[in-house]
Every structure is written in structure tokens, then in C-alpha cells.
Amino acid sequence: MDYRIRSLEEYQTAYQKSVEQPEEFWAGIAENFTWRQKWDKVLNWNFEEPRVEWFVNGKLNITENCLDRHLEKRGNKLALIWEPNDPKERFIRYTYRELHEKVCQMANILKSNGVQKGDRVCIYMPMIPELAFSVLACARIGAVHSVIFAGFSHTAMADRINDAQAKVVLTSDGLNRGPKQIPVKRVVDEALETCPSVEKVIVVDRVGWAVNMVEGRDVWYHEELEQVDKHCPAEEMDAEDLLFILYTSGSTGKPKGVVHTCGGYMVYTDYTFRNVFQYEESDIYWCTADVGWITGHSYLLYGPLLSGATTLMFEGVPTFPDPGRFWQVIDKFGVNIFYTAPTAIRSLMASGLDHVLSYSLDSLKVLGSVGEPINEEAWHWYHIHVGKERCPVVDTWWQTETGGIMLSSLANITPTKPSHAGFALPGVQPILIDQEGKEITENEQEGYLCMKFPWPGMIRTTYGDHERCRQSYFSTYPNLYFTGDGAKRDKNGLWRIIGRVDDVINVSGHRFGTAEIENAINQNKHIVESAVVGYPHDVKGQGIYAFVVCGEEAPTNQENLRAEVIETVVDQIGKIAKPDKIQIVSGLPKTRSGKIMRRILRKVAEGDTSNLGDTSTLLDPPIVDEIVKGAL
Ligand code: PRX
Predict the structure, then answer these.
(1) What value does the mean pLDDT of the chain take?
(2) What is the pLDDT of residues 27-55, one digit of tens each?
(3) Ligand 1, pocket-test mutation among 147, 370, 376, most atoms within 8 A of CB
């Protein structure tokens, strides 16, 4: 069955069917995949526990669907194009047949290093082909991958490894990032000092550094490669067996391990990829996200490979060697579909039009945006200067927890509008809820965005702590999945995402809990207490503003103290969570019951102190004047 929607009418029919007969609808899509054994029942669910099972008792292996089933028709088609950080270095291309072989070899390396079905494997690697091989190799043998973005610190990595009790770590000696080279293995070594579950470390030689190899624990990928077979049978998995864990921030201090399973995730990422981007067989597709985030999982690897597409992986950054790099890569490979984040667009906008105008960009057909609200100025710039007003911009709203795209226009099929994600995808049943927990049915009203029915790609649990999953997503409103976002529909029913309504901030498309950053800052011995809020930032979307209270022994030089606080955050989480502004204060505005009044701090950070609202319930009202006067 061809399940690509080709007209507005087909979208409407598909949507209607997906709501009226969801099981038949998804079964019809799922039939297009290779199953070792068909499911007994399409869906079991309740949002109280919560319990969600798709394709019950179905047996499959996702890599047979990403790779093996394409071999006959697409064996010589390009599966993966890898473009290195340095444009002078040669790119590498892998056909489906070659990728299949590489994945099988990596799978055999994992096996010979003791990995078995169900074991957790941590992957901490730069954007190199071996990262793709590693992810798929885990899936091939039924090991659960937990990819950790290679910008996280050793402390953050250790927390994630220990939470998942990972047995093996896959990494590299170092990584290239623009003009810099960064040690990676050293970070792993530091993390592993506190990770007793890890038995083996497999190291890819990327930058040619001499690294410390621990006898009996660490092995080189290239040496292991010489000893393994090119064939590796795919492990038979239950549709609800774990495929991966991906850690993401919530409003509490500790990141959660979001769990996705094999069957539903497969069906959902493939379906959404084909339809949103209107992918066609000969298209070259490029998603700039790092595989360390959900976008890289679902739309750099799984979705495109399931669809038999050619997917491009880029090791570098948009501004190296100059801010024309994205456009140069598009022209070099004739990229047809380009998917990136608003923060990248805004940073390239700031470097001037010349860089983009020197490339033809003729091959482009569809542009995508993901990760944060795209402001109108960036939307127009992207549409006019990159897409030459010829390419639809699909603004895709979704989350780590949703597994795949939920609200988005379908390229050239459903309407697009700047700053709006568009209609819900078939199978997605959004609902807006007001302050009292009641449904908002009228358009043009803001509310809390929830989902009232399960979709195949949704989160199943938070690893090792199901109650946390229930609490975080299913307890705010009974029988609904709560997204944590505020949204509204326009008069035509197009969705607009306003932003997070919880204590999560979105910095350059990366999610952090304010409590998580505060916990990190508080690790500094001079800091007694801190409060972190987001504020509007021209390039990052949101910036991190920290208010810190220090102890008596703290350095008197404020710049030194700030540098120390930054160092602590970099050490605890990573450079990506560095506060943009740190204001040193003598106290925080608190209610008599000791609760920090974040509302006031947010206003100060936004530079809007004209109306701070009622401060009479504060324990120490004069502190507000001090904070306002010292605002950065
Ligand atoms: O607030 C929404 C924002 O990013 C959050 C999800 O973050 P994460 O799990 O890291 O996934 C990012 C990539 C899917 C959402 O709760 N967000 C994501 N996409 C959009 C968005 N906000 C507005 N428009 C979007 N297109």
C-alpha cells in the first residue's frame, strides 16, 4: 500500500479514519513493514497507569526494516552520505548494502564484547558514520541504546550511564568541531571512574590521538573489525521490547530516561517522515540535528532509513570554515529536503546575506524547522533566501517523548503559516485545556496542549521509574498526555506553539530544567543558593539567566566568581548549559513559606520591571529593589 498522502483531500480522509478507526488506520500502515510475526491486537491502552502497547505480540527487528528489506531493490542506492567537519577532507558514501555490512560488523563487535539482548549500551560519539553503525548495531542485536550527546560533561554522562546501568560504552578518541579538536575519550575515562556497570569501551579512531587505553576494558574499533564476520542475524524483538532510552530534561532536577519501543516507533517515524517531507525515492535528504537528540534518532537515522531514503550526516558546524557551509553542502550533494533548527537559521541570518546568495540552492524542494518556535523574521528569511519562495517550510512540533512529529504541515499539501506548526498529523488528537482543566473548544484561545489518544511513537515509560512517567505526563489532567507546552489554534484550526509552561527552558533547541541548572550551580562551594530563569535571546531563542547568592568566603571579584560558576556548570552538565548572565544577589525573592517567586525573576531577566505585580507577600520585599537595580 502506498501510504503517502498526496492531496488535502487525502489528508482529510486519512485524518478522519485515524480518529474514527485508529486501530484499522495504523494496522493498514504497519502492514507495509517486515514482521517476523504479525500482531494479535493493534492497541492496548490506558492513560491512568499509563499503559500503552502497540502491535501486541508482533515480532520484528527494526534494522531488518531499515536495511535488509531494501537490499533487493535498493542495495546499490545510497543510504548514508557523510560530510566531514573540514571541507578539505573527503566525504564518504555508503550504499544500503554497505551500510548493512557495517552495521552487522559493529553488531558482531558488540556481541564479541559481551553485549546481549536487553543490555544497555551507551554511545558517546561525534557525528561520524560509526555513530550510525553503533545505533543500528544495538538495534540489530536487541541491545538498548542510550545515546548521550557528545557535548555533555563527564558528570552528566556518568549519571546517565548509572541510571541505565550500561554495560558497554562506544566512543571515539576525539572530535572535530569547527576549528577545534575536543578530547572525547578523556571525558569517558573521567565518567567511568564512577560507573561500575561498564565492562567494555569500544573506541573509534577519529582524530588519531594517542589515548589512554585501559587494559582489559578498552578496545579499538578498527582492531576489533578485523576479527568479525560481515553477517549478523537480526534478533527477533517483541513490538514492545525496548529500542532505546534517551535522556531529556524535565522540570525536576534529574533528566529522565525516555523509553521508546520497537514496533510503534518504527511505524510512526517512517509514516511521519514520508508524509511531512513528502519524500520521493530519488530525494537527497539532510537533517542537521545531532544523533544525540531525538531529531537525530527519528529523522536522521530511523525515519529516512525505514523509508529507503538517502540521508546525509554532517560532522561540522554551520559557521565553519564560514557561515556559507550549510549552503555549500546543499549545492555539493544536491540536497532536496533540508531540516534544521531556528537557532541555526537565526545565527546564519546574523552573518549576512552574501553567504547564502553565493550558492544556487536549486535542488531544494522542502525546508523543515524543529526544536523551538520559529519567529516570523527567521521564517521569512528561510523561506525567501534559502527556499527562494519556492519551497514550503514545514514547522514541525514534537518532543523527545512523542518519538516523532505531531503537529506540522505536510509539504505542499496542507497550509503553512509563519510561526504556526499547522494541522495535527493523522493519528494525533490534540486538545487544549484551560487553567481549570476544562477543554477549550473555541479557536484563538491559549491553553495547555494535551493529547487525548495514544499514537504509536509515544513514550512508554521513564527508564527504571514508571511512576515518574505517570507523574510527569499523565497526572496533571486525568486521561490526557500533557505536553508541557502552551498553544493555540487560529481561526482555521492551525496550531501555534507558544512555548513551555513548566520550568523547562529551550536554549538553541536544547531542553534544560531550571532546577537542573540550579543544582549544577549549587555544586560550586561559594554558592549558597541560586535561581535560574529563561529570557528571550536573539539567536538562542532563550538564554539562561542565573541569580546567585554566595557565601562569605566567595571571591570578592565578581568576574572571577562568575567564571567559577560557569566552570561548575560546564563540569556538571556541559558547555551547552552555560548561563548567559549571572547576577550576584544578596538574597532571592521568597514567599513567607520559602518559595522562590520566579515570576519576579523572569520579569527582571526579560528587562520588564515596570510592573512586577504584587510583592506584598514576600518575606523580604526590599530584596526586589536590589535585584532590579543590579539587573544585567
Ligand atoms: O517546547 C516545545 C519545543 O521543544 C520541546 C521539545 O523538546 P525536545 O524534547 O528536546 O525535542 C525537540 C525536537 C523535537 C517542545 O515541548 N518545540 C519543539 N519543536 C517545536 C517546539 N516549539 C515550537 N515549535 C516547534 N516546531
Answers:
(1) 96
(2) 999 999 999 999 999 999 999 999 999 99
(3) 370
> In this model, does residue 448 exceed pLDDT 90?
yes
In the chain, where are the structural domains located? 1-39+260-459+483-500, 96-235, 508-629
CATH number of 96-235: 3.40.50.980
Q: Which atom of ligand 1 is nearest to the CA of 395?
A: 26
Q: Which letter, b or e, does each residue of 19-44 get, where b requires 16 or more Cβ atoms within 10 Å of its Cβ?
A: eeebeebbbbbbeebebeeebeebbe
Ligand 1 atom closest to the Cα of residue 504 is: 1
Query: Is 500 touching ligand 1 by the criterion CB < 6 Å?
Result: yes
Average pLDDT (517-528) is 96
Question: Helices 96-112 and 129-141 sit at what angle, rounded to 10 degrees?
Answer: 70
Fold of 508-629: GMP Synthetase; Chain A, domain 3 (3.30.300)
Q: What is the pLDDT of residue 1?
A: 62
From 485, 500, 510, 540, mutation site for ligand 1 pocket: most ligand atoms within 8 A of C-beta: 485
- List the Cα angle 481/487/493 in 5-degree steps: 100
Q: Under CATH, which architecture does the 1-39+260-459+483-500 domain have?
A: 3-Layer(aba) Sandwich (3.40)
Q: Is the ipTM of this complex over 0.90?
A: yes
> Do the beta carbons of residue 534 and residue 516 sit within 8 Å?
no
Task: Give the Å distance between the CA of 400 and the centre of ligand 1.
Answer: 8
In 3D space, the residue among 214, 215, 218 whose CA is nearest the CA of residue 170 turns out to be 218
CATH fold match for the domains 1-39+260-459+483-500 and 96-235: yes
The CA R_g of the chain, rounded to the nearest whole Å, is 24
pLDDT tens profile 122-172: 999 999 999 999 999 999 999 999 999 999 999 999 999 999 999 999 999
Structure confidence at residue 180 as a pLDDT band (50, 70, 90): very high
Q: Is 61 in the pocket of ligand 1 (CB under 6 A)?
A: no
